[in-house]
Write the structure tokens for this entry.
Amino acid sequence: MTNDVRSKSMDPACQEMLRACEKSGLETAWDRLEKQQPQCGFGELGICCRNCNMGPCRIDPFGEGASRGVCGATADIIVARNLLRSIAAGAAAHSDHGRDVAHAFQLIVEGKAPSYCIKDPEKLDRLMKEYGLDSPALLAAAIMNEFGKQDGPIQFTRRVPPQRLELWKKLGIDPRGVDREIVECMHRTHIGVDNDYVNLILHGLRTSISDGWGGSMIATELQDVIFGTPKPLFSEANMGVIKPDQVNLIVHGHEPLLSEMIVAAASDPDMIELARNEGAKGINLAGICCTANELLMRQGVPMAGNFLSQELIMATGAVEAMVVDVQCIMPALGPLASCFHTKFISTSPKAKFPGATHMEFHEDTAGETAKEIVRTAIKNFRNRDPSRVQIPDIKTRCMAGFSVEAIVSALGGSLDPLIEAIKSGSIRGIGAVVGCNNPKITQDFGHIGMVRELIKNNVLVLTTGCNAQACAKAGLLQPEAAEKAGDGLKGVCQALGVPPVLHMGSCVDISRILVAAAALANALGVDISDLPAAGAAPEWMSEKAVSIGAYVVSSGVFTVLGTVPPVMGSKAVAELLTSGAKDVVGACFAVEPDPVKAASLMIEHIDSQRRKLGLA
Ligand code: CUV
Ligand code: SF4
């Protein structure tokens, strides 16, 4: 059985909890994945279609049965349409998050969201200048307007190097507002509309760009304005951050609009007093998934774990409340919470769950709701059954907070020292490693295997999302991890006192990586596709990751995927994504589940880019 647990997760805390769950008969994602075996082959290949009621249709991958759906759609069409719908859903998730932040920003500016304030007025000024506007109210209106912009362009796309913008325009993929692009995805994939796989995929790229350089970037920028631009700080990661003698409040999901208010409420002296009266030593807050990343980056709140840790964290029996908003929250948490005293609290009108208590969150009453939630957690402390508590005593120190602004200031005010280090070869290139956990891959194994290999080979790693949390748990976000890097990278990190893996935030903060890439390319006078850089999502699972992959490649960055996307049922589409795209957008995808081999692909690419730039 021990072996079995090791094949599920490489995180020792998760392994301990997996054993505990097995013992007490609690079901987890890994058990459910097993019960799904064998998974549908048509689905895996992307060749089933339910887009109209003449179907569902499926294409025989062996070429013996049906080669067309009832309407005549081929595997190429079906695969491309399915891919487009995934991009639409992923872009929608990120950008709806961005919209919520923009809406909150507008309310703050209008004085209608009294619980919030503007923590980074300098960034606000920079954004106003970028938009050519002279008041926060006008900026708020202009940004709200970006989402539904009918004719484009969206302002932040103008941050790309001129070559890239020309290319996008030439290809017709310089996007309009993300809402329009997403609607068009749904229209084009309706029966009998767009049936040209290249045309479909080009629109997918356009949609993804409106996410990466639009909705997601708006989320990041305005979150910085409201909650502050991250600066380097230290914290801790893994389940050992859960405290046996305190009220443990776990925030999970994505939008800091909610979680920042909970941070404030949990540090309110009245609340702490209340917790003491209930017999607890204090209130302990920790995060899961991107909410954890957001709170770590700006507040130093510890991270309890990443995506696949969520059930295991609840299974410690020490969680008074798990508070969630949107995205990556398993509906399995409802039934699991009922096995413990844990209150599972949903907060978004967009996301309700069976077994959850719904405490709806609105910007104008945010502070009050947050206090109510914290109070609920505190009152639940007495219901904890100490005999059922098991907290793995495992946690790791980590450094985070590397916004582009923080990186520039760590470098002494400009990107020049980084460019010099890249030119001299002490830093071979940049690897952006991001994305989820997926129980099809041993938890964190894809992330850690790849990142270790990259830094060993002097590739500076930029990280976000669940990869960042995997790295944090494995100790790779400590300055001391420089020891594990090649000599060149080690020297740079030690001189600056930073880790070889820089935590840049949540999934929407991949926009920070885009901004950094654009700034580097602009400084060198080249396109992003000329940089010695590569991206990867070793354990991706969500549709958001599909949109991310698409906008990263559209921006010119070669990207390796660790789990196979459902496109293999069409040779033409798979070929376009893994090679043809290179001639179109100057970058393509590769699929490589072995993390070390995948890292080699990235390093090979970085080396060939260096040669093209005339660097040794
Ligand atoms: Ni948004 S999208 S599992 S929490 S990175 Fe983590 Fe990050 Fe994937 Fe979800
Ligand atoms: Fe079948 Fe075509 Fe309808 Fe899809 S759109 S379900 S392939 S008939």
User: Anything to note?
Assistant: The two ends are 50 Å apart (CA to CA). The chain has 25 helices and 16 strands. The longest strand covers residues 247-252.
